[in-house]
């Protein structure tokens, strides 16, 4: 073990751990008390970047995170997101100024804090001019309610459009993008990663374990683990990501991981963590056992031999399973 190296969050001076704790399970399949313990265990191990969203379990995830940080708020970089539907009204979603301002106040209340370190636009709203969205975010930064802003699951051209608008109009600049990225879906390497490297944008990938497919959770017989999201939500976006092709690749990957003395979950996360441009992949454990499996990755380094072996599963820029299935802008077919 060589110890953990902190990384800069894009062009900011903020240092973050090379793994981010994702709170999507908290307040849902992970009960509140256990969720609080997970947050504390991750922080005790050195993770100081925590990511949630206002739509996770109708805000319950933010509430659990807020309770977990009640006596240790200053020790973390706290990230949440805005965009998704938060009510029945026509203005209860999207990236308008009206929704962003309302949603930010609601997130602050649930999180039990008076500021958000990284406020991210969860998905694009193509019909809303980017200067309206950035203008609202800029006002939140100037009011001290938000420290930095970023985006999630945006195409590279939209990220570039936002960076250009920020420079042109003197608006808050995205410091990060949060894309889906794992060994089964490497499409961000074609445009987004080069953009991030050129313009100093942090990448905080979600689904680095390919929703458990690369962690060895799914078997070739097609039976789904009863506690998996794919099993709990048949026909959902999560179920769509569990394919025969992906499971077969996952089986080959598990063999590869064993040959290198890693668990499949460790190697999948390590591969993502040590790819060019990546700042901190998001690990979203449901249980303490899942968290404990991947915490050693904080102090691991991917070897050249491991990198080359992983490329035999799916080569650079390639795709075996569609993890952009919540992004209508992605048109690449999966054949």
UniProtKB/TrEMBL annotation:
A Pfam match: Aldo_ket_red
Gene3D superfamilies, A to Z: NADP-dependent oxidoreductase domain
Domain NADP-dependent oxidoreductase: 18-314
Keyword Oxidoreductase attached: yes
CC per GO annotation: cytosol
EC number: 1.1.1.-
Family matches, as InterPro entries: AKR, AKR_Detox_Biosynth, NAD(P)_OxRdtase_dom_sf, NADP_OxRdtase_dom
Keyword set, alphabetical order: Oxidoreductase
Record GO terms (molecular function): oxidoreductase activity
Protein name per Swiss-Prot or TrEMBL: General stress protein 69
């Amino acid at each position: 073990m060589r110890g953990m190296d902190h990384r800069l969050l894009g062009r900011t001076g903020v240092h973050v751990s090379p793994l981010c704790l994702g709170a999507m399970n908290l307040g849902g399949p992970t009960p509140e008390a256990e969720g609080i313990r997970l947050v504390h265990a991750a922080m005790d191990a050195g993770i100081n970047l925590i990511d949630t969203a206002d739509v996770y379990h109708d805000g319950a995830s933010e509430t659990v995170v807020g309770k977990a940080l009640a006596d240790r708020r200053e020790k973390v970089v706290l990230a949440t997101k805005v965009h998704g539907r938060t009510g029945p009204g026509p203005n209860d979603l999207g990236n308008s100024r009206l929704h962003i301002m309302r949603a930010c106040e609601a997130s602050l209340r649930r999180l039990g804090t008076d500021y958000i370190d990284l406020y991210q636009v969860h998905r694009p709203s193509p019909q809303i001019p980017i200067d309206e969205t950035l203008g609202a975010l800029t006002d939140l930064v100037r009011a001290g309610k938000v420290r930095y802003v970023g985006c999630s699951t945006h195409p590279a051209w939209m990220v570039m459009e936002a960076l250009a608008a920020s420079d042109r109009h003197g608006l808050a600049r995205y410091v990060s993008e949060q894309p889906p990225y794992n060994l089964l879906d490497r499409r961000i390497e074609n445009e987004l990663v080069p953009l991030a490297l050129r313009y100093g944008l942090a990448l905080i990938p979600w689904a680095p374990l390919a929703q458990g497919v690369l962690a060895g959770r799914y078997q070739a017989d097609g039976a789904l683990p009863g506690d998996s999201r794919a099993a709990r939500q048949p026909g959902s976006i999560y179920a769509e990501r569990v394919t025969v092709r992906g499971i077969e690749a996952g089986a080959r990957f598990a063999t590869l991981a064993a040959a290198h003395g890693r668990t499949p979950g460790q190697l999948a996360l390590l591969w993502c963590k040590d790819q060019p441009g990546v700042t901190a992949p998001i690990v979203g454990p449901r249980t303490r056992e899942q968290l404990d499996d991947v915490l050693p990755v904080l102090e691991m380094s991917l070897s050249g031999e491991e990198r080359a072996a992983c490329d035999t599963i799916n080569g650079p820029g390639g795709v075996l399973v569609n993890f952009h299935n919540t992004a209508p802008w992605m048109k690449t077919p999966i054949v």
